[in-house]
Amino acid sequence: MVQKDLIWDMASVSAFENSQVPAWGGFNALVSEREIPLTHIWYLPFINAPPSDYSTIYTTLLKLVETATALGQEHILVTADVAIYSKAVQILWTAPDPLAGRVTMRLGVMHLAMSFIASIGKLVSDGGLHSMLTGLEVCADTYVTLMLQGKQ
Questions:
Q1: d(CA 146, CA 131)
Q2: SS in 3 state form for 89-111?
Q3: Residues 85 and 52: beta-carbon distance below 8 Å
Q4: Residues 127 and 102 in one domain
Q5: Which of 34, 68, 79, 132 has its CB 3.0 to 4.6 Å from that of 73, i.e. a possible disulfide?
Q6: pLDDT tens-place string over residues 97-145
């Protein structure tokens, strides 16, 4: 394994201009001796209902658990925005039998970052961060206000 990485590293450095050496992942795919099965991707059906409605979230979680069971998965990880996440967690706290111990909810990265910045804004609400960012012309006044409220 280490020898293949060394060969790729030497080949990619020596052929820097007009390189015919593929990226690391492509190189390993070419020289691999393992037979990797083809992966199939299916899209789940469209749900024509309000996404943040409790019944929609509950039905979706049931359908996800059913799909995971059909695929042989014991547990699933679901990523959602704040509106759906908070309601889904409330549903999971009641631990309905078909969902108990089968689903872990995760807040989406963008919403997690926005919540984190909002908490910083709350902690240093008038500690000068707003003045510093706007005074140094790093950001516009409105943008800084929305950012520190977790809305931008």
A1: 14
A2: HHHHHCCCCCCCCCEEEEECHHH
A3: no
A4: no
A5: 68
A6: 888 889 999 988 888 888 787 777 777 766 777 676 777 777 777 777 7
Nearest-angstrom CA–CA distance, 125 and 2: 51
Sign of CA dihedral 51, 54, 56, 62: positive
Give SS3 for 12. helix
The answer for 18, left when phi > 0, alpha when psi is -120 to 50, beta otherwise, is left
Those residues whose C-beta lies under 8 Å from the C-beta of residue 105, and which sit 6 or more positions away, are: 78, 80, 85, 88, 89, 92
Domains in the chain, number: 3
Indicate whether 118 and 101 sit together in one domain.
no
Q: What is the CA radius of gyration of the chain?
A: 24
Report yes or no: 106 and 112 within 8 Å, Cβ to Cβ: no
One domain, residues 84 and 103: yes
The model carries a pTM of 0.57
What is the rounded distance in angstroms from the CA atom of residue 74 to the CA atom of residue 103? 9
Which 8-state DSSP code applies to residue 53? -
CA distance readout (Å), 10 to 26, 28, 87:
15, 14, 53
